[in-house]
Amino acid sequence: MARIAFILLCHKDPDAIIRQAEMLTAVGDYMAIHFDARARVEHYRKIRSALADNPNVTFARKRIRCGWGEWSLVQASLHAVEAAVEAFPRATHFYMLSGDCMAVKSAAFAHEFLDNDDADYIESFDFFESDWIKTGMKEDRLIYRHYFNERVQKWRFYTSYNLQKKLGLTRPIPADLQIQIGSQWWCLRRRTIEWILDFTRKRRDVMRFFATTWIPDETFFQTLVRHVVPEKEIRTRTLTFLMFTDYGMPVTFYNDHYDLLLSQDALFARKISPEATELKARLGALYANEDATFQISDEGRNLYKFLTGRGRIGRRFASRFWETESSLGRQRELMIVICKKWHVAKRVIQRIRQVANVPTIDYLFNEEDTPLPDLGGIQATLGKRTRHRRALMRMLFDYFDTDRLIVCMDPSNLDLLHDFAGDRSTTKMLEIQCEFTDDYLIGHAKRVGLAGEQTSPQTLERLLPTIRGDMTYESDRIRDAGFEHHGVIRETAEPDENAPPIARFLDIPPEKALEIAETPRLFAD
To answer: Nearest Cα to 457, choosing from 471, 468, 442?
Structure first.
C-alpha cells in the first residue's frame, strides 16, 4: 500500500502546522518539514517541541532563508526531501505541500489512487513551446543570471538583468536538458526522488545553472523528472487543486466551499483561508474516514471561469464563490502611515523597512506612479486601486507572502481609513503630524492646482490660512473618528516621546523604536 511522505515548506502559523502534521501522520503517513529560517525562532521551537515525540515527523537538517522566485525554495525542498528519504524508508511517494494546503479526500482514497497507477504526478510542459507563461520574462529567466530577489531587491534585480542584456552576457542551457515548466505542487515516487537526488550529486553544472535562474521552483523538478523518468510514467498534472483569479493570484477557499472541493479531481487543495476553521475541521475528520465516498464532477475551474465572465460584463447572475468572504483576513495586519508630507512618510517607512523588515508601499491610493507589482491590471490606475481596494490589498499580502504590510495614505483619505478600519483584519494607524511653513503650503497649493507660478503674493497670503486650516481639519477628523489602533508621532516631539507609539504600531522592542525615532533628518523638508 502507498505510504506518503509529505514535504512541507512553511514559514508561519505554527499551530496550523502542528495540526496538519498530526492529521496527516495519524493514519500512518509521514512528514518532513522545512520551516523558513527567516521566520520567528520561537515558532520553530514550538513546532519542534509539539512534534518531538511523533516518529512519523522529521525536519530538514538545515534551515535556509527562502524568498519568492529564488533558488532558496528549491534548496529548501531538497533539504526536506533528503531528510524524508533517510528517515522514512517505507515511504513510497513524496508529496509537496505548503502550509495553506489541506486534503480534500480521505487517506484511504489517496492511497488507493496512488496504488492504482504507478506514475509520477507533476506538471511538465515544454518551456519554450507551451503557453504556460502568460506574461513577462520567458527565455530571459534562463539565459541570464539572476542573483537578487525581484520582490525585495527590485532595483538590483533589474539593474543586473538590464546590464547583462546590454552587454550580451547570455549563457547556454545545458545541452542535454529539455527545460520544462509547471506547478511546484507535485507527487513523485520514491524511485524518482532517489534518481533526482543522485542526479543533483553528479551534475553540479546543472545545479549551478538552475541556482541563478528566475523562479526555478517552476522548472527544476519539472525538468529533472522528465529527464530521468520515461514519458509514459509521467502524468502531466498536479494532484493539488488550485485556481487563479483574473489577476493571476491564487483563489482562497472558505467554509462554504467544502462540497466544491470534495468534488474536484484532486487529493489536496490550495489555498485554504486561515479563518476557515469549520472547513479545516471537516476536512481533517474526512482524512481519517475510511468509509468516505466521493462523486467527482471536477467543475471548479469551469464554474469559476463562467462566473468571472458574467461579472466582467456586469451580469452578476450568481454569487461569486471565491469572494464569499472579502475580508483581508483576520490574521493579517494592515499598517497605515498617515502623513500630509509625503516625503516624510516615505522616509519613515524606508527606515521602518530597514529596522523592522516589514514590506512597505508608498502612497498607492494617491500617486499613480507608486511602484507596484503587476497584479493583472487592477493596479493600473488610481481609480481601479480605489474601487477594488480590498482585492488589491489581498493581492499585495499574497504577493509579498506576508501577514503584515505597511502602506502610506494622505490624511484626506478618510473614507479609505474607515473602510480598512472596519475590516476583520487588524488595522493599525500611525499618524505623523508635521509643522507646515508658508513655503511648504505654497508649494502644496501649486501641486494640487490651487495656485500657479503667476499667482500673486497677495492671493497666496489670503489662501495660506485656509490651506493650513484644512490640514488641521483633516487631522481633527482622523482623531474624532476614534480608530481603535491609532497612534501619533509629532515633528516637534523628542525621539523618546515618538518611540512608544512607533513601538506599539510595529510591535517591536522600545530600543528598536527609538532607533527609528532618532533617524537624522527624519522630518526634514
So the answer is: 442
